[in-house]
Amino acid sequence: MTKLFLLTLLFQSLIAVSEHHGSGQSVAPPIAGGTTPAAPSSAAQEFLDAHNKVRAEVGVGPLKWSIMLANATSIITRYQRDKRSCSFANLSSINYGQLQLLFRGLIAIPPQVAVDIWVAEKKFYNYANNSCILGHECFSYTQVVWKNSLELGLVVLKLLAPTTTLF
């Protein structure tokens, strides 16, 4: 008997912006010492590089790594794991941009692929009126390239869940 395990990756990121989307509110000041640029992990650096490559293509400045946002994202993601809910977190009450991706498969996907999935929504973005094409989503794409975004913090949570038993 062989058990297959499904690898579930929950990608969550928070993006600090200089102004909250459209509201004119400032982002809450960082916790003292919270955004000291600690070196991101190699996977986090790959995410940061992938974001910044896309941002450069549309002429907006690069994001910087934020340990404070990474820690906040880690808390949110661990909460999801602990309540055994590999689903998107409800992040509507926070004043940061956010990206979430739930991937299920037998192998992990690299950071560039996750960013490519978010950026694929570009085809649904109408630059002329700064909106999504009717009937389509482009929120993830606009989060990646939002010009007022300053910092990125993210976490990838890996879960193994048994799915199929082969005899």
TrEMBL record:
Query: Sorted alphabetically, which InterPro entries does this protein's record hold?
Result: CAP_dom, CAP_sf, CRISP-related
* A Gene Ontology term for the protein's cellular component: extracellular space
Q: Does the keyword Chaperone apply?
A: no
What keywords sit in the KW lines?
Signal
Q: What region holds the SCP domain? A: 42-167
Q: Where is the signal peptide?
A: 1-16
Is the keyword Signal in the record? Answer: yes
What is the name of the protein in this document? Answer: STS14 protein-like
- Provenance organism: Nicotiana tabacum (Common tobacco)
Q: Which gene encodes it?
A: LOC107790971
